[in-house]
Amino acid sequence: MALINEQQIAHQSVESIVSGATDVGIALASVMASARSEGLGVVPIGGIRRSPLEMVALLQLPKHTFPLAGVAMGYVDVPAHQKPRLPFETFRHNETYQTAGLEENIAQYNQQIGEHWQTTGRTDGESWSESVAGYYRHIYFPDVLDGLLKQGFGIDK
Ligand SMILES: Cc1cc2nc3c(=O)[nH]c(=O)nc-3n(C[C@H](O)[C@H](O)[C@H](O)COP(=O)(O)O)c2cc1C
Predict the structure, then answer these.
(1) What's the pLDDT tens digit per position in 29-58?
(2) Which of 43, 50, 117, 132 to mutate to test the pocket of ligand 1 (most atoms within 8 A of CB)?
(3) Domain check: are 14 and 65 in the same one?
(4) pLDDT of residue 3
(5) Cα-to-centroid distance, 44 and ligand 1 (Å)
(6) How does the average pLDDT of the chain come out, rounded?
(7) How close is the Cα of 9 to the center of ligand 1, in Å?
(8) Is the domain of 53 the same as that of 18?
(9) Pocket mutation for ligand 1, best pick of 22, 26, 45, 122 (most atoms within 8 Å of C-beta)
(10) Which CATH number characterizes residue 43's domain?
(11) Do 99 and 22 belong together in one domain?
């Protein structure tokens, strides 16, 4: 039975942006895993949010859509070095949020990745935690909110 006079309102809430972004993350991870399993290399592209409205125009996106993530794909010319990964304990939380040992684990990781960077020729001397903290000292893509609003999304207000 067709619904008459029914209106979609979910896009007026930031809840649907969070929910949609979660789905995009799942899709992105699946695309990356599938591409790699076929022998391709991938780079996720958050930079697609740098000038959202330019991407909207370029991709001819309709209202209620938004460029959240891109992914570049191709055959790898020179394989990158595999970076040591953050210890699992730093981001695994059993039942409740865990902070025990965090600082020690991060200090150990700083050491480990510092050695890795030496082998790959990175010599700016900045530690991993200084480098990551730097990302959070500014808003990476400040035009996102404006882009979302122009695409018809709302933020509950
Ligand atoms: C969500 C996300 C967005 C990214 N956006 C970009 C991007 O816009 N441009 C870029 O050159 N690399 C981008 N990258 C790639 C990273 O800079 C990095 O090269 C990649 O994650 C490999 O590092 P890893 O060995 O720690 O996984 C992005 C990575 C992630 C996970």
Answers:
(1) 999 999 999 999 999 999 999 999 999 999
(2) 43
(3) yes
(4) 73
(5) 5
(6) 94
(7) 34
(8) yes
(9) 45
(10) 3.40.109.10
(11) no
pLDDT of residue 61: 98
Residues 33, 60, single domain; the answer is yes
**pTM tops 0.85:** yes
Asked whether residue 2 is domain-assigned, the answer is no
Task: Answer whether 114 contacts ligand 1 (Cβ < 6 A).
Answer: no
Q: 100 is in which domain, residue-wise? A: 81-125
Q: Tell whether 98 and 155 lie within a shared domain.
A: no
Q: How many residues does the chain have?
A: 157
* Pocket flag, ligand 1, residue 85 (CB < 6 Å): no
Q: Is residue 1 included in any domain, yes or no?
A: no
